[in-house]
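testing teh design pipeline on a random one, pls ignore if ur not involved
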């Protein structure tokens, strides 16, 4: 069986990391898997990129410019939507021709257009889609917030000023997706039960196969190491309690850092002593929001460095306000680090409340603070760490996830 995994980037972003890990999991279980990407970051022999061209960056800029125009010349929310009006045809590539299964992941920001996606569907090859966000079953948004228009048909997207000037891009792209899926069988895989449940409410997925398979992680790589040694390497205090917060872009409003800052201010009033590691781009920008010592570390992609930081921390916290199945929680748990997060998206599927961490009430900084202190002061803290590791091993290990996907591939090939 030859599987082609298609994603915009090879290594940058949560979807890219998940797609890459799936490829490795499949290969370890006897599947001939490759990745095809627009942006290649390593020299991996099983990852191919589309031919380089001066047009590639222009396609990204063109899509953003059209969204900018539709948004009344405002930048607000222009990265929260994708109209897929431009892209690259991959169906004539060697990798595509050799594949038995086409497995689409995150293909936005000028990589694949709706025309390209339609041609992939027209090829007759079975198509599997992993939904890292909501884009595949909405009109143009990655996360819809409180909007439920996708359940019956998107139009006048609330993320665009006045629903968008000129063409109604939400309605147009939604109808293009309807046309692409009409008369075809596609497997929609949600990384969390939360996103799979939302997908099933969309008119786009009616009559399609929808299920949940979480992201895989190599638990032989992500594992517990020496805490003191990890702290020394990163010039972190070897004594005292350390909390880790990580995001590709710290100031992204969807990551909810202000709620974490508020929770830490509440904890500080109680006299509790701790420190915070902030990992991600723009980490320096939030130092003044925290009443504790902050150790900012810019975005890093090296897995071994990230593993050391998970092990350096006593607790991993995520204040995301809308998220699917954060890789960071799985990674932290595989390193034996308990987690705290809000009751939103796929997070409560990962964190078992008061078993391997704490699930706080949504946007409730006081409960978030309570959860942080409950974990750090738990009499059975070592048991929390063990439970986090066991959850990662039993639910997200490569072998478990690979076999679930192989079952889906076989089902699609038998249709």
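output:
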């Amino acid at each position: 069986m030859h599987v082609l995994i298609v994603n915009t980037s090879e290594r940058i972003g949560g979807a890219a990391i998940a797609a890459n890990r799936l490829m490795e999991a499949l290969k370890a279980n006897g599947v001939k898997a490759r990745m095809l990407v627009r942006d290649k970051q390593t020299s991996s022999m099983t990852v191919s990129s589309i031919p380089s061209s001066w047009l590639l960056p222009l396609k990204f800029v063109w899509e953003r410019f059209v969204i900018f125009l539709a948004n009344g010349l405002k930048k607000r929310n222009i990265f929260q939507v994708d109209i897929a009006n431009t892209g690259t045809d991959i169906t004539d590539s060697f990798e595509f021709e050799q594949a038995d299964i086409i497995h689409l992941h995150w293909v936005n920001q000028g990589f694949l257009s709706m025309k390209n996606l339609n041609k992939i569907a027209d090829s007759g090859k079975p198509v599997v889609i992993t939904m890292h966000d909501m884009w595949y079953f909405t009109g143009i948004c990655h996360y819809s917030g409180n909007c439920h228009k996708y359940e019956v048909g998107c139009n006048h997207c609330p993320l665009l000023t006045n629903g968008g000037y000129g063409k109604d891009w939400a309605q147009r792209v939604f109808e293009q997706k309807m046309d692409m899926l009409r008369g075809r069988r596609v497997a929609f895989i949600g990384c969390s039960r939360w996103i799979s449940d939302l997908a099933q409410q969309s008119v786009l997925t009616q009559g399609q196969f929808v299920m949940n398979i979480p992201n895989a992680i190599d638990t032989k790589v992500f594992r517990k190491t020496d805490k003191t040694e990890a702290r020394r390497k990163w010039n972190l205090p070897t004594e005292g309690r350390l909390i880790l917060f990580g995001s590709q872009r710290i100031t992204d409003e969807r990551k909810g850092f202000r709620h974490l800052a508020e929770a830490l201010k509440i904890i500080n009033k109680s006299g509790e002593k701790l420190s915070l590691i902030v990992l991600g781009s723009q980490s320096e920008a939030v130092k003044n929001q925290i009443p504790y010592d902050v150790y900012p570390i810019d975005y890093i992609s090296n897995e071994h460095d990230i593993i050391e930081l998970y092990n350096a921390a006593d607790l991993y916290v995520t204040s995301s306000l809308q998220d699917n199945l954060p890789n960071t929680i799985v990674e932290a748990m595989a390193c034996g680090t308990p987690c705290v997060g809000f009751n939103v998206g796929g997070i409560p599927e990962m964190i078992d409340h008061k078993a391997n961490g704490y699930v706080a009430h949504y946007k409730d900084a006081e409960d978030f603070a309570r959860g942080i202190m409950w974990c750090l002061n738990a009499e059975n803290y070592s048991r929390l760490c063990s439970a986090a590791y066991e959850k990662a091993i039993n639910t997200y290990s490569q072998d478990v996830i690979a076999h679930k996907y192989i079952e889906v591939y076989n089902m699609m090939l038998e249709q």
